[in-house]
Amino acid sequence: MQLKQAESSGGPLADRVTMPETKTSRAEFTKQSSVLPFGQPVSLSSISGPTYVTGQLLVQQIAYSLSDKIFSYSPETFDLDVAVKDWAVKEEKNIHGYPTSVLPLQTRSGAGAFALGYIYSKDFDLSKRHIPQTLLAPSLSLRHLRSALDQLALLYGVASPFVAHVAATDYTSDAGLVAEYGTALQLSEELGLGLISSGSAYEAQHISLFATLMAKVLPTLHVYDGVRTSRETLRVIDVLSQVGVAEIFNKISKTAETLNKRLDNAGKVLELLQAFNDELGTDYEPFEYIGHDTAETVYVVFGSAEAQLAKQVVPKLAAEGSKVGAVIVRIYRPFIEEAFIKALPSSVQQIAVLGQVANESAALDDSVQSILYSDVLTAVSFSSKWDSIPAIADVKYPASHAFTPSSFVTAITQATSKTPISHIQLPQLESVQQYIFWDIDDSVTVFAPTVVGQLLSRDSTSNVYLNESHDNLVQGGIIRSDLRTSKKTIDAPYAIEVADVVLVGDEKLLNEVAVSKSVKDNGKLILKLPNFKDEEVEKRIPTTIRRDVQARNVSLYILDSSSSPAFENDLNAARLLVELAFLKVAQPDIKHELLEKLAILEANPPTLEECLDALEKSLKQFEVPESWGETVDETSRNLPQVLKTNSFAPFEKQETEQDSQLTSWESAAKGFVFKEAYATDVSLRPDLAVKTYTIHVKENRRLTPITYDRNIFHIEFDLGDSGLTYKIGEALGIHADNDTDLVREFIESYGLNADDLVQVPSREDVNILETRTVYQSLVQNIDIFGKPPKRFYESLAEFATDELEKKKLLSLVTPEGAEEFKRRAEVDTITFADVLEEFKSAHPSFPELVRLVGPLKRREYSIASAQAVTPNAVALMIVVVNWVDSKGRTRYGQATRYLSRLPVGAAVTASVKPSVMKLPTRDDAPLIMAGLGTGLAPFRAFVQYRAMQKAQGKDIGSILLYLGSRHQREEYLYGEEWEACLDAGVITLLGAAFSRDQPQKIYIQDRMRQTMSDVVKAYIEQEGSFYLCGPTWPVPDVTDVLKEAIATEAKASGKKVDAKKEIDRLKEDGRYVLEVY
């Protein structure tokens, strides 16, 4: 997309957007990186004056312009070096007259040795000794760079100036990407490095420049927020061009050369900072005070977002009468105590240090102090400024905490005031228009906020701000974009709390994020809902959103492009429609000219009339009924309003399948001998993506008589020292082998050599190749005795050399062959091996066969034990699946037969899978459990655990256990245990339904109806939880019983209740749980 800015200095935006001479397809619009303004590459020479930039772009501009070499430790998606690498490839020159070398390096043990080797090399060009060397890295790399930085600090007198621009970014398993400053603060203190922080993108260029100058005194770290602040696209008025950078750097470098040698590092830094301010007309200080002139409480803060929030929140509190102030730490090392004490007002009585610590545990641990607190405590304690030393508090917060204005004011006032403040409205945001876009990251409309932001940025009288955050663990990847516009400069490095307009680009997100909570009162919410019908509104829009929209008078707009086929079927047009809809809602008086100019950006663009017609048909304001605001007895999920950022790029959903190949034992031997060279992984089961454990059979006994036609067995495993742990209700994944006799038969019939080695993709992760013999791969990897889908017949036809066989294979995937295919699958139960035996002319090579058949999958079974009761064992109850096919052959389920034949002591590979079957949080909450056959397994664990609690003297809720099977004599599974628990008072009611032991069939729903009063009491009156485990067929009947129980209780209490809606509510509350198959 290309847009040209007219040479106009003002006027409506629509009048000042001009089009390119040739139309460009939107399909060509791409975003290169989130660290580039609007995701677009920028030439070095174009960075100047009023322009849109990101903080990271300005850091790279300074690094490239001033450095001899740049050593980059940027992880792949962090893109800390994306611009400098581009400039280096294009051979753009630095201020010294030659292209800067950019060396991308890996973060690992010993990182930094390459840079040290270059700086201290005997062959180093001494004429470049005065030229800075620069490092770009996230804070997570610093721990690996410690050794190199330590050596650099010790030998700095004979080194080139060295500056590291450190994006405060680390990854934690619970919070994702976090702005982590602790590592940089600690290293600078322990190694004697300089450390300076920039508070916003507006300062990034100046502070990067000053940090490079400061490196002439001591090795310096320049640290800044690498998660949000450095990645925001925004407009900076006074950006220095490379020429301007060169003039300032060269001039102040001369000052650095004439610094008084007797001064310590702190004194030299202060003189250098003064010269820098004089040259630029700025007023940067090591410690900057803002707030009340006679403040009694002063907050000390460090960090990019923290500094800007302090500058905005504290003056607001002071203006309202609170005697508060804040000291923003800009130069942390050297810590210039005199400057810090000078910044504090003499009236201060209490100093609260907002200090970052590693995690939540450290924040709650009284024995842990923040690094900043120690410096403040030392400086104040030894000062003679006050007759009575102010009290000093360490207000700790974890690195995972991303502040907003409200959470910031809450954090500082909770620690220092008897009346903490939970919300604040900043005057800086009163004239700002704020918009939020939610979408999945592979949506065709995902670039809409960027396109709109770039379009609005063409108005030189406006300031546009754009930020995006990714959560790749929700819905396969979602993205939130924050867009702000204002006539004044915007400095808001935090998430939008309440937006004027919120647009949701995918319906699935309505159940994942609290989209309506981010809309301000009387704001606007746009939902993209394809094929929308008014009568379906309550099904498609969750209750919480409907209630919130009505309660806060939010205008609701539905965008449904199905009424405009051209906009529905064409991806470019679909993107355009979302952009038009947003502009129409956000700016109701928008000019037609702007819509036309936006529309014409698309390939084969619609006319303006078509755009307006599409908007008229597709975008409707929905009349919100008053009934939506009625109170409903429903517990809503606590959905997030902001994302837990865990990536800087969309999730890569395309996976490349690796080819398998037959090899010799020599190839495998090389892999074992030279593990690093061949990237060989030696592990328990490298083919499994899940965490696996080796456990051993402890007991394997049949529960049904040997003469009975159903083999139901109890198998128990000894966990030993495997480390396997499980929770009540979880399932055990068994990685079962294929029948070895059948494998040998197939190898012989297909003409394979069992001992040939083959590299095959693992059965759980196609990106992992493992080397096995043909025999091993057929036993453990390949689902050769599984059920073939249609695509297998179609793919196999390509290998058939017999035309009749090829024709028949292809006919099975046609509509005419559907009946035949169904018979083969459901009646004949044909396997892959059967098909290959039938169509002998279709004979793929073994590697090709591996690709066609696919991997074995683990089979999961509900765990029938509680680890709190049997800490070193796990039990399952399983029925062997068997049947006779149309040819009279007895067939078996692969995994159940494998397990039934395991002897005591046999090793099994297992894993654990979470489940919906969980005990209520209240121990006294009643349990109503219905299990058919082996569906009783998880309820055995439930009863075991409640029995243990009762033995410990705890009050437990009543247990109603309904079980169903065909005959009591043969299938009263765990019957003796249930009877014992009933006698012990653990089980309150045992409703056994043996369907074929009497003339009329009796099922669990009948037993439940017979004990309706017990169900009503336990489930409705005492707020118990209901669980059903087993086959799907009884679900409707059992649910009807529960509806009757709800209606019975409602009638008795004189209430009017919709039983169906009540069941839906109970589902959301986790009190109606089904695990059926």
Task: Briefly summarize what is shown.
This protein is an alpha/beta fold and 1077 residues long. It is 34% helix and 21% strand.
Task: Describe this structure as you would to a colleague.
The chain has 1077 residues and is of the alpha/beta class. 34% of the residues lie in helices and 21% in strands. The chain has 37 helices and 41 strands. The strands form 10 sheets. A 7-stranded mixed beta sheet has the order 5-4-6-7-11-10-16, with helices on both faces. Helix 31 links the parallel strand 37 and strand 38 (959-965). Helix 6 runs parallel beside helix 7 (242-257). The chain is globular. The two termini are 51 Å apart.
Largest pleated sheet: 7 strands, mixed
Overall shape: globular
- How far apart the termini lie comes to 51 Å
Class by SSE composition? alpha/beta
How large is the radius of gyration?
A: 35 Å
Low-confidence stretches: 1-27, 684-689
Largest sheet, order of strands side by side?
5-4-6-7-11-10-16
Number of helices: 37
Helical percentage = 25-40%
Number of strand segments: 41
Mean pLDDT across the residues is 87
Strand share of the residues? 15-25%
